[in-house]
Amino acid sequence: MTTLILTVAGADRPGLVAAVADVVDAHGGNWENSSLAELAGTFAGVIEVSVAADRAAELEQALHALEGLLTVAVLTGSDAAADDDRSLGIQVLGNDRPGIVREISGVLNAHALSIEELATETRDAAMAGGRLFEASVIAKVPASVDLDALQADLERLASEIQVDITVG
Predict the structure, then answer these.
(1) Mean pLDDT, range 63-85, rounded to an integer
(2) CA 143 to chain centroid
(3) ACT domain location, by residue (predicted)?
(4) Measuring CA to CA, how many Å separate 80 from each of 28, 47, 63, 83, 140?
(5) Is residue 82 scored above 60 in pLDDT?
(6) Average pLDDT, integer, range 33-37
(7) Cα end-to-end span (Å), the chain
(8) CA–CA dist 56, 53 (Å, integer)
(9) Which helix (H) or strand (E) holds 22?
């Protein structure tokens, strides 16, 4: 089996998921994991599909026929994570300002963490006014990472950019 990673984007409208699912199924693929969302009127997502190696090119070609309805990019997936990697959850909450994602991802990168999932949201701060920024991160942590040093760098950053960062 071959793993394909599909990225899809297009103007949001009914039937987009069904269109992709129909193509995947018609070409012997199995929809395994996905993260799909509508953001500012645009539907976007990432989908992991497994398919027999001899049908992967055929499936990829059929997915490109969806152009006009959706923009589809297809990559071949890999299982690059080491068996001894572990996952770490990180929560961020604070007043919104430019650069928060850049700062957090910079610290994670400096410690060789790989972001598996990142969800962010801004919303009105009910009592204080302004906007709040919230992020939820799941990162792969190689066994070689010094967790105390990572925690110290995240605490230093939280103080610098005035957000709460919870690691757990």
Answers:
(1) 82
(2) 22
(3) 5-77, 89-168
(4) 25, 18, 25, 9, 11
(5) no
(6) 93
(7) 35
(8) 5
(9) helix 16-26
Using DSSP's 3-state secondary structure scheme, residue 35 falls into: strand
70: tokens are 């959706």
Q: Is the pLDDT of residue 80 over 60?
A: no
Two structure tokens written together for 148? 């105390």
Contacts of residue 134, defined as CB under 8 A and 6 or more positions apart, other chains included, come to 91, 92, 93, 120, 121, 122, 123
- DSSP three-state, residue 105: helix
Q: How confident is the model at residue 83 (pLDDT cuts 50, 70, 90)?
A: low
Residue 74: the pLDDT is 94
Architecture of domain 86-167: 2-Layer Sandwich (3.30)
Residue ranges per structural domain of the chain: 2-76, 86-167
CATH class of 2-76: alpha beta
Give the gyration radius of the chain's Cα atoms.
19
